[in-house]
Write a structure and sequence with these properties.
Blueprint: H1 2-17, H2 23-85, E1 98-99, E2 102-103, E3 105-109, E4 116-122, E5 129-135, E6 142-149, E7 164-170
Antiparallel strand pairs: 1-2, 3-4, 4-5, 5-6, 6-7
Length: about 170
């Protein structure tokens, strides 16, 4: 009799740990796994989208800063040539200008009497600057307008992301 009780006890314990899942439990597990996977995917896409926008924003800020520095360099160069060498005097011949080690491109005067405008451009450190220096006899007698770009002068038309910043000096 003792052997029979022992066999029944063993069979009972074995059946507790060997239960089988029903088909509805298996379907719930697949549904839960699909739900968790879709939530993780949605979260990953959201993080990627935010990172992409931040990258574009920081790139735009950097290019804007480069365009501003190019415009400032051009304005300072024109100011130097006007103050030190009177390069924009309509009574004197147009002199070759160099800015930041680069020769100015296409220096042109609009006339020989006041008001007169000079236009030229150059590429300091690979970024374009287009300048207009206007001299007049009334105040302000000199106006320097510098447009700086975040790309080289030859790439302004082709680039879809060229940024422009301007600086203007009057005295």
């Amino acid at each position: 009799m003792m052997g029979v009780e022992h066999d029944m006890k063993y069979n009972f314990q074995f059946s507790i740990f060997n239960f089988q899942k029903t088909s509805s439990q298996r379907g719930f597990t697949i549904l839960l796994a699909a739900l968790i996977a879709s939530l993780v995917l949605a979260l990953g896409i959201a993080v990627f989208s935010i990172a992409q926008k931040e990258l574009i924003l920081s790139s735009t800020g950097r290019n804007s800063e480069l365009a501003f520095y190019a415009a400032d360099t051009g304005a300072e160069c024109a100011l130097y040539w006007d103050m030190r060498h009177s390069a924009f005097d309509p009574l004197l011949p147009v002199t070759p200008l160099t800015c930041d080690g680069n020769a100015a491109i296409n220096v042109a005067a609009s006339g020989v009497s006041y008001p007169v405008s000079y236009t030229f451009s150059f590429d300091p450190n690979g970024y374009c600057v287009q300048l207009t220096v206007t001299k007049d006899t009334v105040h302000p007698r000199t106006r320097i307008h510098a447009d700086g770009f975040s790309v080289a002068c030859s790439d302004i038309e082709a680039s879809g992301r060229a940024l422009q910043r301007s600086v203007e000096l009057t005295y």
